[in-house]
Amino acid sequence: MDGASTKGVLSHLSLLEVQARSRKSERQQPSRVKELKAKAEALRTQRDQLKAEIETHKSLQKLRASMDKQCAHEEEEDEEMAEDSENSELLRLMARHTQLKDLLHAHDIIGGYSVIKTRQGKGLCVSVTTAYNGVYLENYNLEMDLKPTVRISRDNIPPFIPLKSLAEQSNMQTDIRTLLDPLSQHLNAFAARKQQLKLVKELHKSVKVMESNALCSLLVLMFTVPREKMAVLCSLEYTDHTRCLPTRVHFECEDQGLPDSPEWKKNGSLLMETPVHKALKTMKKMGDIYSFKMPRYVEARRPLCWFDPSRAKPYGLDDGITTLPKTSHSHLRVHQLLTSLSGKFTPGTSVALTLPR
């Protein structure tokens, strides 16, 4: 009897628990419905946004394809796109923007070098582009074998660039950029020095380039001081071949005190801190140098000559003209001597000379 009553009480409690849960769920149902409706609305909005993005992406892909391929029917596709969409110009700009972003991203990935696989992936062709002041100059190429070890097979790097020593000092077996980065520094510095020399010849006709070498690591210029009308030789030495600015500037003239004057010390600092063609422009504005041109009919060449130390007389000159002393064969003195002799030559005559050793 007690067991039956206990069983009846438990059943009744279970029934009450089920009824309580049912009533609770009925009270929560309206709020749950609202929550589901809001979620459905958000999903519909997200669906519409994705559809718009897909359409935009398709349009961008279409324009990108026409930009990349540069086909003849490019204009026809653009006209068709203009008919399909009122925002075709905006889409075109967006396509160009994404194209440039992709190019920049790819350029960053390869470290600024153009890399092409060759021989079915067994080799690489790396192109290093040089530039100066935003102007692209020469391209230099390296063809490299990847197996059995990474090595340079062919290149068009100038022979005075220390490519072999750079390769030996690098760790190109595991990181090729340890070779390419210093090589790029050397090549860009050389291209910058070469471009500066070109600009000096183009922009400063009054400045005479007396000497330069293939690496453009030595440059000898001649200009004159306006007040004294005195010629000055300026030697620029670039001992750091990874830079385009000189490491040493030396002036030579008849006035021994001029190079040590504050004015010309300032000019020396200017030449060491500023590209030479810009420094010369500043020096002209300051009135430190002016036009000084050699006679057109006197052409000094090195190392041919019109002076022969083994002969008593110079070639084709009067007996009263003596040979050049061995201790004074600088560019400056040679130029002064040629200028003083200019009246003895007829226009159109070329004079070549070799300096005594």
TrEMBL record:
Start and end residues of each stretch annotated as Disordered: 18-39, 67-86
Biased composition (Acidic residues): 74-86
Positions with biased composition (Basic and acidic residues): 23-39
The keyword ATP-binding belongs to this UniProt entry's keyword annotation: no
Keyword Nucleus among UniProt keywords: yes
Places the protein is found: Chromosome, Centromere; Nucleus
Ranges that cross the membrane: none
Superkingdom: Eukaryota
Gene Ontology cellular component annotations, sorted alphabetically: Mis6-Sim4 complex; nucleus
InterPro entries per the UniProt record, alphabetical: CENP-O
Major subcellular site: nucleus
Keyword annotations: Centromere, Chromosome, Nucleus
Family the entry assigns: Belongs to the CENP-O/MCM21 family.
Protein name, per record: Centromere protein O
Organism field: Etheostoma spectabile
